[in-house]
Design goal:
Blueprint lengths: L9 E6 L5 H10 L3 E4 L6 H6 L6 E4 L17 E7 L2 H10 L12 H11 L1 H6 L2 E4 L5 H12 L9 E8 L10 E4 L20 H8 L2 H23 L4 E8 L5 H15 L3 E6 L9
Parallel strand pairs: 1-3, 1-4, 2-3, 4-5, 6-8, 6-9, 7-8
Length: about 280
């Protein structure tokens, strides 16, 4: 690191038991980050101020008990929070041999509720939230390394544009959520219903609503402007999620079109479709 280079970033890795913190920490260690497990909140300030030549990660979670409640991270430290749906956490905990840090609260459901309470402050302070409910370990590892310890050093702002269905729950990872349910809905056309927004007939149908292009125009202008300020503030990740009812039609079309336009603005964009493969529950 030269004198004019900023030091590598420091991160707190936190989140729910069963959400994948061990997997994430291991992936970061393999990628070359310095990982301190179960760091005491009282040591965070000194840890954050220490000299470092590579990304540093402190795993801080509910094992610290009430000491973690209301924790305010040092201003120079970013926070990565891993979570999952309660049903997924319950299943993973049932398969684990590790005791839950909040087991004293009662059964597994009570332990999860208590843990969410303890971690509420860190969840609110999180720079990035990753929902691991449907992630394989390898994909989780890839995502956290890309975010915290990219092989080529600090990366420019990366934008994720995703689609999802409100029927399947909110997109908890998103920084911005755009509700596109006001657009013309292909679901009510029997010929289009089995298709998805990745297919041309659905794209044409959704974009035949003039509000679709107007929405994408307005979002592109706003996000292109905002991304400049996010990057100047040191932000490296922005997740914009478009949601429709089932996550198969309108949100997919809008996400794909928005991503195309943002790439034309020279932004680095990844597209994810959370629910496109799920049957519509209606």
């Amino acid at each position: 690191m030269t004198a004019d280079q900023a030091p590598p970033e420091a991160w707190i890795l936190t989140g729910m038991s069963g959400a994948g913190k061990t997997t994430a920490a291991h992936a970061l260690e393999v990628a070359g980050a310095d990982v301190a497990d179960n760091l005491s909140p009282g040591l965070l300030a000194a840890w954050a101020a220490s000299t470092r030549s590579r990304p540093a990660v402190a795993v801080v979670d509910a094992r610290q008990g009430e000491a973690i409640a209301g924790l305010v991270p040092p201003s120079s430290v970013r926070v990565l929070f891993l979570t999952a749906a309660d049903s997924v956490l319950l299943r993973r905990l049932a398969e684990s041999t590790r005791p839950h840090p909040c087991a004293g609260a009662g059964g597994s459901a009570a332990a999860i509720e208590q843990e969410r309470r303890l971690l509420a402050g860190l969840r609110a302070a999180a720079d990035t939230v990753v929902d691991t409910s449907e992630l394989e370990p390898a994909e989780l590892g890839r995502r956290v390394v890309e975010l915290v310890a990219p092989p080529d050093g600090p990366a420019p702002l990366r934008v994720v544009v995703s689609s999802f269905g409100f029927k399947f729950g909110a997109q908890v990872e998103a920084d911005w959520v755009v509700d596109v349910r006001f657009l013309r809905n292909p679901f009510w056309d029997a010929a289009l219903r089995p298709l998805t927004g990745l297919e041309e007939a659905v794209k044409v149908y959704v974009r035949s609503d003039p509000r679709t292009d107007e929405l994408c125009d307005r979002l592109t202008d706003l996000l292109a402007w905002a991304s400049t300020h996010y990057a100047a503030n040191g932000r490296r990740h922005l997740h914009v999620a478009a949601g429709c009812t089932g996550g198969r039609h309108r949100s997919v079309v809008v996400a794909e079109e928005l991503a195309r336009r943002l790439r034309a603005e020279n932004l680095e964009v990844t597209v994810r479709h959370r629910d496109v493969g799920k049957p519509d529950p209606r």
